[in-house]
């Protein structure tokens, strides 16, 4: 999971890169991947669960 470094008091940010053509979710920047940022862990986890159900691979 790509977790942005933050200063005290700053909210955490979870990031994934999604490539729908290759059906791939990456936890680090990848060519052709679209960046998604989440400020809620619950929303991040829900999105991951959705990609899993759709058969996306992870790297």
Low-confidence stretches: none
Strand content: 25-35%
Give me the secondary-structure category: alpha+beta
Number of strands: 5
The N- to C-terminal Cα distance equals 10 Å
Integer average pLDDT: 90
Note the run of SSEs as H and E.
EEEEHE
Main sheet overview: 5 strands, mixed
The portion of residues assigned to helices is: 10-25%
Radius of gyration of CA atoms, rounded to a whole number: 12 Å
Instruction: State the shape.
Output: flat
How many helices? The count is 1
Written account of the structure:
- By secondary structure, the chain is of the alpha+beta class.
- The protein has a domain at 16-28 and 42-59.
- The chain is built from one helix and five strands; from the N terminus they run ββββαβ.
- The model has no long low-confidence stretch (mean pLDDT 90).
What are the defining features of this structure?
single chain; 59 residues; alpha+beta; five-stranded mixed beta sheet; 5 strands; 22% helix; 31% strand
Topology (elements, then pairings):
Layout: E1 2-3, E2 14-19, E3 24-26, E4 34-38, H1 41-53, E5 57-58
Parallel strand pairs: 3-5
Antiparallel strand pairs: 1-2, 2-3, 2-4
Please sum up the structure shown.
With 59 residues, this protein is of the alpha+beta class. The chain has one helix at 41-53, and strands at 2-3, 14-19, 24-26, 34-38, 57-58.
């Amino acid at each position: 999971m790509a977790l942005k470094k933050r200063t005290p008091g700053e909210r955490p940010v979870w990031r994934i890169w999604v490539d729908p053509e290759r059906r791939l979710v990456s936890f680090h920047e990848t060519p052709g991947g679209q960046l998604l940022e989440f400020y809620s862990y619950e929303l991040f986890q829900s999105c991951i669960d959705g990609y899993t159900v759709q058969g996306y691979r992870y790297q």
